[in-house]
Amino acid sequence: MNNNQMLITVAMLVVGTVFTRFLPFIAFPEHKPIPKVITYLGLRLPYATMGMLVVYALKDTKLTESPYGIFELLSLVVIAVVHYFKNNTLLSISAGVIVYLILVNGWI
Amino acid sequence: MKLKALKAAFPLTLPVLTGYMFLGIAYGLLMSNQGFSIVWTILISSAVFAGALQFASIPLLTAAFNPIAALLLALLVNIRHIFYGIALLGKYRKIGVKKNIMIFTLADEAFSINVATNHPPDIDAGWYYFFVNLLCYSYWQLACFSGHLLGAWIPDDIIGLDFVLTALFFVLFLNQWKKKENRKNLLVGVFATALSLFIVSRAQFLLVAMILIVGLIFIVDPIKGESHEQ
Fold first, then answer.
1. Which residues span the domain enclosing A44?
2. How far apart are CA B22 and CA B8, in angstroms?
């Protein structure tokens, strides 16, 4: 590709991305009443989407070969336990990441 | 007031800083190894600002010219953003012109913090969410830039630091889990995405997951008389 073709390709990436980000706000502007079904989804998607993101973040975990996702599972359990007792977001994240790094890098 | 909002937003973005440094440096290094000039890394990181797409688009940038494929890839990888917008229609109201910047910088991590946390009561909501997004955006620019420039000198013998972003999503998920009425929709998201990951090819699984999510929401949590506020 020459520079112009590169630039057009990048522009396409930008257009596609910007479109997905702005679409809901353009389709449902503030000055117009929002359709009931969108309001309905808007109250539920914050949770369903967070569930989606958790799985999305784990999508490259290989369950069929060693270590079968055990490192991820253990780290998530550590996060859940620490979060249950301490309820401190940054502490829970740090604990989970440290356990994951130890497991995945074989530091023990 | 703005400074207070920035201070309130900063701590929650620390996991994002860690994860972005790791991933952004990897991206910059990859771009430089592929022989791209740093101008391209800066242009793509600042104008596209979508990690998954940036990685996925490298093969496209090194292949024959195919702008339609680039557009389709961007739409397919980023279709999840549509849910982010719908979920934030309520929170992103009445915040003025900066709303456009917030939408432009609405990546997974900024979204997750926007949607799952509430601004401290004495702080302006608009500025709080604005700074969350702006900080995340800045971290990504810094990381991609330094990865391209210095990637070869940055030690890469630690693997798995990007797990910090998974951990962030999971903890925000747990925070939402505390309220019983949220749980069925959280589970809908997990179930639908996991199911579609198993049955559909990698390229389309997000689209299928999103359709499943909408269908399942209608089934497990049907409309009751309700007004809009989150």
1. 1-57
2. 24
